[in-house]
Amino acid sequence: MSAPQTDTSRGPLSGVRVLDFSRILSGPYASMVLADLGAEVIKIEPIGRGDETRAFPPFVGGLSHYYIALNRSKKSVALDLKSPEGIRIARELAAQSDIVLENFRPGVMDRLGLGYAALKAENAKLVYCSITGFGKDSPHGNKPAFDIVAQALSGVMSVNREPGQAPNKLGLPLGDMAGSIFSLFGVLAALHERHVTGHGRHVEVAMLDSLIALQGYLSQLYFVTGETPQPVGTQHPSIVPYGSFATSDGHVIVACLTEGFWHNFARCIGRPELIDDPRFARYEARLAHRLELEPIILAALGRQTTAYWLQRLAEFDVPNAPILSIAEALDQEHVAAQGLIECVEHPKLGPLRLVGSPIRFDGAGAATMRPPSLLGEDTAAVLREKLGYSDDALRALQERAVIGGVEDAPCGTPERVD
């Protein structure tokens, strides 16, 4: 479809062009992963304000931490989608793109003249992805949806707590990210199919559907037993021992997912007789006698420090871990060894550390990382290179506020976009 990229990007999706109308998190995370895999991502942003997250504090050098985290390796084009000329430019870019990504409420892109039917008529090979909160056919279809809303409706919040405590949202914005992750599955599958059929698809993913799909064994637990899963905190609803246990100076994670690990753990804490105790000998018995077993474990672990138990658990080959803070997690040796943090040179901030893609191909990252673009930084270059606009035409468009340049900085509170 599109011409190969001329920059230094590499990776399996090199030569694939993505036109990204999405904002906040559910779409931008998906387009960032596509960029990590080598795709050329052109991000369309409102003039003067940009993606709403550009205004989310805290800031460094005037740039939002939120925007930085989700928008590396993309080209920013500032465009007025409320003007006929802006819509025309967007359609011209879509006609030369392989993938269009958007996360507005159902119907918004159709009203703009940028819906799937309109763009497919001009580009039959287009893979068009819509991420919504609930899907166009849902009774909630036109309601606003954010991460915490999806978490609440998915049932996830009800089990994300210690027994007897108030429901709590996940620390990660998994409601948003689930929509992104499943949209990537759909987009890449449709892209593969296009190589065979020559035709694109409309990929539709709802955040709530995605989070429900990630319930895993919890949904099946309800289907099998007829009882809704109850909160167990860090413990496991059907595996014992599994979770966080207090030591003399903190906590340690123990995960005895197999009988072999349980035997190792019993020996590790100096209680080998528990292996043959009929109350604890098998999965079902330990689950039934959880309230008897856990005090025995806590009494043993509480006699020594976390450091002591981490070393001993490793010696006995028991799955274990300390509970790290975000800072400790990013500073651990594993992260450095895997090369997960990369440093890029930002035009305003200088050296900027970013968490990179976890995907490796032949031992290396998928694509060369670029820092997040300034608002409108790539507008002129994209329209000149992709659509053949002259400098005079670009100046005229900017004078009429159809396009924005890099000097147009976000200001004030972002306007609502529905």
TrEMBL record:
Keywords: Transferase
Source taxon at top rank: Bacteria
Any GO MF annotation of the entry: transferase activity
SUPFAM superfamilies named in the record: CoA-transferase family III (CaiB/BaiF) (SSF89796)
Pfam families with a match to the protein in the record: CoA_transf_3
Transferase found in the keyword field: yes
Protein's UniProt keywords contain Lyase: no
Protein name: CoA transferase
Organism: Salipiger mangrovisoli
